[in-house]
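Section 5: illustrative case.
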């Protein structure tokens, strides 16, 4: 069996099909499109509510790792194009999506890069629990986007590998982020909340 044939068969096994249960389809759509915005909101909440410098540095480091991962995705897409399942008239599509490159998945790379980075930082950031949660969320996103018909399994496997690779940069990057990037972002953030006179109980300064 060729890799492409395996990819097609694996996709059809996970894809929703013609008549999926409505509750399962709703859950699949939530996983496919809802978890990533919730993750962004989570990072904003952690930034606001955790003024501890080590944890904030971990959040910034993980964000940089995620951006590097997405950049690698774009580089891969520049040299290699793979159509989405609906372009090949394969399976059933339950989410409107542009017919652009599917390999690797940006959603998968987004989730796993953040999760793996927080796990890689370990005690330095103290956010391992959130790293586990985001990593598991990445699997939910991967399943959801295959289930609703916009990605192949190999798209997600590639995203997993990209995220795992870039997460190796988390520890070396943490030091420079703590020394240079975090003071820069802190200065902007604290100046903003002071200018807006936001309450310290909700927006701790230190």
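Designed sequence:
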């Amino acid at each position: 069996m060729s890799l492409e044939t395996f990819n097609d068969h694996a996709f059809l096994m996970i894809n929703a099909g013609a008549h999926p249960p409505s509750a399962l389809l709703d859950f699949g759509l939530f996983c496919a499109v809802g978890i990533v915005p919730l993750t962004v909101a989570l990072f904003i909440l952690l930034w606001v509510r955790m003024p501890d410098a080590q944890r904030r540095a971990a959040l910034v480091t993980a964000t940089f790792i995620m951006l590097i991962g997405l950049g690698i995705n774009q580089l891969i897409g520049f040299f290699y194009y793979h159509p989405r399942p609906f372009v090949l008239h394969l399976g059933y599509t339950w989410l409107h999506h542009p017919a652009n490159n599917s390999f690797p998945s940006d959603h998968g790379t987004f989730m796993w890069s953040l999760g793996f980075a927080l796990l890689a930082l370990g005690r330095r950031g103290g956010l391992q629990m959130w790293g586990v949660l985001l990593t598991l969320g990445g699997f939910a996103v991967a399943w959801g986007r295959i289930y609703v018909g916009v990605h192949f399994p190999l798209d997600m496997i590639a995203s997993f590998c990209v995220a795992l690779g870039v997460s190796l940069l988390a520890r070396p990057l943490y030091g420079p982020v703590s020394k240079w990037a975090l003071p820069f972002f802190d200065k902007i953030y604290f100046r903003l909340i002071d200018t807006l006179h936001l309450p310290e109980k909700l927006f701790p300064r230190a």
